[in-house]
Amino acid sequence: MTLRYVQGLALVCALLGLSVFFYKQAVLGLPLSEDASRSAWTIEASLRFEARPGPIKAALRVPALTPGFATLSENSVAGGYGYDIGYEDGGRRAQWAIRRASGEQRLYYRVVVYGDPSIEEADTTPPFPDPPGLTEPERTAALELVEEVRQESADAASLVSALLRRVNDPTPDENVALLFEGRRGGTRRMSMLIDLLAYARVPARSVRGLLLKDEQRNAPIATYLEIHDGVEWLFFDPSSGSQGLPDNFFAWSRGLETLATVQGGSGLELNFAVRRSQLDSLDVATNRAEQRGSLLMTFSLFSLPIQTQAVYSVLLMIPIGALVMVLLRNFVGVQTFGTFMPVLIALAFRETDLLAGVILFTLLTGLGLAIRFLLERLRLLLVPRLTAVLIIVVLLMLSISVIAHQLGLETGLSVALFPMVIIAMTIERMSVIWEERGAQDAMKAGAGSLLVAALAYLVMGIDALEYLFFTFPELLLVILAFVLLCGRYSGYRLSELRRFGVLSRKDS
Amino acid sequence: MLWGRKLKNSGVIGLNERNANYITALNSRRLYPRVDNKRLTKSLAAAAGMAVPELFAVAESQGDVRGLPETLAQHKSFVVKPASGSGGDGILVIDGRYGGNYRLINGELMPESALLHHTSNIVSGQFSLTGQPDIALIEYRVQFDSVFDEISYRGVPDIRIIVYRGYPVMAMVRLPTRQSDGKANLHQGAVGAGVDLATGLTMSASSGNLRVLDHPDTLTPIAGHQVPHWDRILDIAATGYEVSGLGYLGVDIVIDKDLGPLMLEMNARPGLNIQIANDAGLKPRFAVIDALLEDGAADASPEARARASVELMQPFSPC
Q1: Is-above-0.80 flag for pTM?
Q2: Which own/partner contact pairs does A295-300 have at CB distance under 8 Å and 24+ positions apart?
Q3: Is the ipTM of this complex over 0.90?
């Protein structure tokens, strides 16, 4: 009767959990595991200059429209400087200011991006450009060149191709030679190209960016020509004339202005560094949830602040640790101190990693136990004695940290993250069992607790599980269903096969 | 279900089955205080006409502990125990005085300060099941019958009877050993000897999880000893059902030289080692009682149930 009820309840829980899970997975398309191939890029622009007396203002053009990439975060590191980001014609600009500074100054702007094909050039269609004010004889040469190129082309794209072919010809005709005299490269050349396209009524602009490759300390800036054909923006390599952008081209800024400027400083150097890093799934998912605005995602864990999310990603693993304990206690029959103490110990292991955690835990408990037995001789009342043990545990932690640090062992420092109340309680319980039931039982329960803690730690440390339960917390309902069923398990524990071994041999 | 088919065939009940199928089904949590609080047990049992060891004094606070020596002066021997202890933890048995000190049953001497410290530990809850503040009971120390002298080492041997839905179904004597420090606690190393429910004769014995034949200290064969007052013992055990209301119950009884069987305590979660001591599983015996009650057996008095049990358990008797 009760069994049926429990089974029914478990079924309902499991179905509920699984259906939400399948909806999110199949319909909303949340991935089942972290996409390992996806990587993020950290791009760091550093400005270096010598400060001059008086106030300093520095500015850097920063990414605004980045087709193919989504921005995860951006920040600035500049000690003492005021920092803000403003919009201006043709993009965004980061600005730093300080009243006075001396010596070499370094300002950093850092942006983290990841590839996202859904991000497109979300720009408005530009108006037809006005004819630029070139002077004679350049004006005539430009008009002639544009007219010739127009004859050779069918639309904006082929016009640009034709123009670039002419301009890049190793033996240029006289119009090109006149126009590009002394403008063989760089900004001035690009400026002339844009002017020529303006005569052809094709909106054009220059885009500067970086090719994201693995590790680059000194990433070169590449410049592309961007034109609008009335429908969308097209990219051309101004030196080769080929159309399209290479993969992993990150558009940093548009326009011809210099990328960085400084007032009140001299010898400005701008340098870009690129680093590839593994994508933090939580951050991306948060970002994605914001972009999509799905109702289920709006009310999901991803809507919480990042710190809270981090807490929950740990909290959600506690039921998994507890599940490990259910299995070990009710199916295997491992003895432990308390019900959830091993899971709490496992949480502490997260901070220290397993081996160091086990060693530190054993060390602390062992030392604490020895001192607890000394305290027993003093015949203290229970609560003062527990408090005394607690104080001694703190002192032990302190000395272990200091000694380990002196020896150059960094793990010794993480001992402070052990929940000391848990250690004090473990010591107290262990010593009571020790006195009443003997050392063997105390050791057995102690070793059992450590075993469960270690296993729980290992299971809770599986990243795939952490991701799965954070993304699909409804799976906890499935765990709940399983635990409900475990609650009605009336078979033997593995340890009982040994315990009642004499009885089972009888019938065989 | 998953493993232990052979064990299942012999009818052995495991901890999971005990907890899931018997304790939760038959023992209402509401009734636990009746057995977990030994002071309450004592008064309920006395009201039901059960013989229990006399209560000399109670220490409910640290203040009471300080006043104890006066009360204790009137008694030569006594037992100090927590009202909510578990598994015999925290019990001190004093059997006399030597100089200014108390003498424990193992011959050790204990200064009064140590005794009072122990009592105050009891009161602050060191031995209680939940760690809550507790009460220390000072009660009559049983002058145990010499019948078990040959097969026990000091201390008080006690008789544990499993009472299922009011019917005694399995019994054992717990014999203290040197290892158990004179305590009748199987966890601490006492020997458990199965008792034939029909006759009251000791049978097979176990120490820990092992089968043994002789007492480890006296080296006397354990089987074949007659437990005296067996009928009265079964009556007391059956009455335990009325007193506690628990359908799955362990009743602990000691035999006093002068007063006969006395009910010491009852347990709502009796251990399963009794199966090893008896070399038999509990389940077939439960099935017999379940069948009897399903047939609509009339409400019977404890005595009638005890007699019925003797009949019903006959098939499980080795004789």
Answers
A1: no
A2: A296/A23, A296/A24, A296/A28, A297/A28, A300/A473
A3: no
